[in-house]
Recover the amino acids of this structure.
């Protein structure tokens, strides 16, 4: 550091300038801050260094975006395979075992078709948020393809037509497809409710903190928490009620033809 009077260099632990012999005790704090600022200014890199660093960060960001796009594509492939193709194959396998190998009652196949898609959809939507429209299209594909595939397996055994031949058969195909679709939709709804509940639990701490900050007394904080709890309860029960409705529709459409006959 330098003396504030003669600007000559002064030792850090000195209280008197050796050149002008003046007392610098009162200036020591300010001189220390000035020395720190000078060190920080000297450590600041040039504009060229910043430009190079920015270019490196831009390249790194571009690479990460590219990796995320590739990962997203493979994630889609994995999800479609695991949550659509696998249940489709399991449904066709169950149909082959029940109708061809063991030749038992069709009600067992209908029960499996109602129950099997549900857990796949549940664990899919419980893991993280998904867009509903693409998976709704996937549900339609799963339902129709599984029913047509079952009809194809039956045609290999008894040489019957694969496609429905009259209005009654088309009605049965649509009802059976709706049963499988509503089972998957039920799993989607239940999984979505579970995921939303998990996300809300993470926010409970923030809501509690907000209630303490915005309220000067205990009653106000309890009021905010009670409103938040009411909204959370309504959302959870609303999703559960809809899921129960889709379950009932799935069971009705799946067993209607068999019980009625």
């Amino acid at each position: 550091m330098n003396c504030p009077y003669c600007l000559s260099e002064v030792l850090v632990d000195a209280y008197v300038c050796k050149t002008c012999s003046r007392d610098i005790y009162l200036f020591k704090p300010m001189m220390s801050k000035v020395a720190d600022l000078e060190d920080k200014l000297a450590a600041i890199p040039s504009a060229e260094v910043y430009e190079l660093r920015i270019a490196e960060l831009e390249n790194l960001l571009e690479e990460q975006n590219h990796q995320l796009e590739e990962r997203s594509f493979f994630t889609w492939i994995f999800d479609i395979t695991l949550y659509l193709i696998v249940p489709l194959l399991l449904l066709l396998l169950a149909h082959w075992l029940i109708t061809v190998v063991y030749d038992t009652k069709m009600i067992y196949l209908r029960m499996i078709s109602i129950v099997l898609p549900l857990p796949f959809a549940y664990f899919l939507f419980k893991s993280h948020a998904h867009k509903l429209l693409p998976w709704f299209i996937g549900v339609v594909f799963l339902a129709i393809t599984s029913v047509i595939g079952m009809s194809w397996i039956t045609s290999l055994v008894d040489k019957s037509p694969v496609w429905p031949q009259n209005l009654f058969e088309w009605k049965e195909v649509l009802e059976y497809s709706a049963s499988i679709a509503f089972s998957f939709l039920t799993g989607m709804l239940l999984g979505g409710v579970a995921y939303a509940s998990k996300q809300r639990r993470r926010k409970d701490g923030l809501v509690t903190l907000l209630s303490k900050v915005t309220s000067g007394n205990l009653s106000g904080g309890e009021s905010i928490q009670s409103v938040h709890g009411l909204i959370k309860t309504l959302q959870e029960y609303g999703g559960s009620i809809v899921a129960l409705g889709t379950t009932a529709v799935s069971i009705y459409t799946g067993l209607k033809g068999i019980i009625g006959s």
Observations:
- Helices lie at 28-43, 47-101, 106-115, 117-127, 132-158, 167-214, 218-260.
- Confidence is low (pLDDT under 50) at residues 216-225.
